[in-house]
Amino acid sequence: MSRPFSWKKSIFLVGLAIFLLWYPKLADPYFLHLTVAAFLAMILASSWDILARTGQVSVGQAGLFGIGAYTAALLYKWIHLSPVLGMFSGGIVSVFVAAFLGTLTLRLRGIYFSITTIAFAEALSVIWLMTPDFTGGAMGLSTPPLFGGNREQAYYLILALLALVILVVWLIQTTRLNFAFTAIRENEEVANVMGINPTRYKVLAFMISAFFTGFAGGFYSHYNTYIIPYEVFGLGISIACLVMPIFGGLYTIAGPIIGTIVIKAIEEYLRVTVSYGHQIAYGLILVGVVLFMPEGLVGLWKKTIMRK
Amino acid sequence: MDWASFFQSFANGLLIAGLYAAVTLGLTLVLGVMGIVNFAHGEMVMLGAYNTFWLFTLVGLDPLLSIAASGLLLFFIGLLMYRFTIRPILNDPPLNQLLLTLGISIFLQNLAMILWKTDSRSVITPYSGMSLHLGMVHVGLTRLLTFLIAVGLTIILILFLYKVRSGRAMRAVSENNTASWLIGINVQKTYLLAFGVATGLAGASGALVSTVMYTYPMVGFKLGLKAFGILVLGGLGNIPGALFGSLILGLTESFVGTYVPEGSGWAEGISFILIMIILIIKPTGLVGTRRE
User: Fold this and answer.
1) What is the ipTM for the molecules in this complex?
2) pTM for the whole thing?
3) Residue B90 at interface with chain A, using a CB cutoff of 8 Å
4) How far is A244 from chain B (nearest CA, A)?
5) In contact, A180 and A83? CB cutoff 8 Å
């Protein structure tokens, strides 16, 4: 699947890289904060998309996010582990949980997988609320500001993680993994007959997705300085993880990124207008995409290009 | 063993099981007839509860009379929802149906938050505090009435499905929709009616919910998840299974609440654990056949 080298594309990518590295000097603190939040969401969206490539539609990514968030916060509380190592540990713990959960849910297809993932996130939320001695319970946990509150450094950290996710998605898309994932998504039995081991790839996708989701959870915990179970294990995060890539366009590199930018813009506008319920846009978008634009924004754009 | 507290927990579990059954029936009906898991079913319950709350607060309408009002309102909302959102995607893959109904669920939850804030509201009637003594057991009057009405709704639904022509058509379509079409049943109309009846039942059970628990924007989502737990417990898409599942969940929650330290908090997690364990052990639900 190697493509011819394209000057236009390379110049665009180099320009984008320079801009992103320069960005903290240009943006005011409010925009810098918005950008960090958007990058975090892009990481969640892209890692959800990795899992969805194997046909596993998760509605419980908040479970993995919350595990990452709490791992980082608890390790800080117990042994004052440095935040970046804490986030990394969050990713690793999420990977183990995903390997376990992924193996258990292997036989579940379609909506039954989705319902099980919701139950997983909700069950974790109950466990966390009920074991306050260990988890801090409903009161949550707090950590000191990341890098002493230096947003520029936080920006570079999340930018690096985002670049890593995109690199991984690109590798998946351009290697044999793409064929394996797509074959499993289209028809697991046929994939099995063709010599692709669905078990291995489905669990692998779950683990990759979990690492980034857990790491992002750890980042959120330190960046936000405060986490509560209702939020980090909440439905809101699971929904955000799936609406952004579906809106942008599934199984593409650009889809989750574009979807996140548009949704974050809408959400930020609503956040200032209404105090509760700004996720109303997620619901409307989900309904609209299923009914009117099944291939998302990327598909819409491709169609317009084709027409010309 | 303290028999009084045992019987008390048993009675509480039984009463709440009636409410769970009322919530689950509509979900079962839509799954059985159309093969769709309606994620927004819980939100229909939530709207029914809010409708009852506002009719009670603004007009003073008794919540038990609101059952009909909420049922009718949600019946029509269901017809609209079916016509404009479900019908276009009937032949889509199940995942699209999941995403669509999940989208409607998220939309309605957030709409409720915008319109009515996140406050927990309750309907307190003159008879809310009354209770009956049956032997060793205290039973709240409202809870008992809700239970009896829930049982009544179940009986009405079963009679409808077995005695009324359009109800029998629903059973026929759930068995085989092509064959039903061949013998002259209007499948589209049957789907429409089944969906409306299901959301109407959700609205009616929402009225019951408002009298025995708090009404807040996420109440439907929580109950909806419990209903899924009941579905996988009792078998997907059959009514006796849903009743059996409700009974098991209601009793388990109640006994855990009584006998486990801090049990009422843990009881909230039972349905999630049930969903995970049962689906993982037997991916088609405890009883019943595979529906793709």
Assistant:
1) 0.89
2) 0.90
3) no
4) 12
5) no
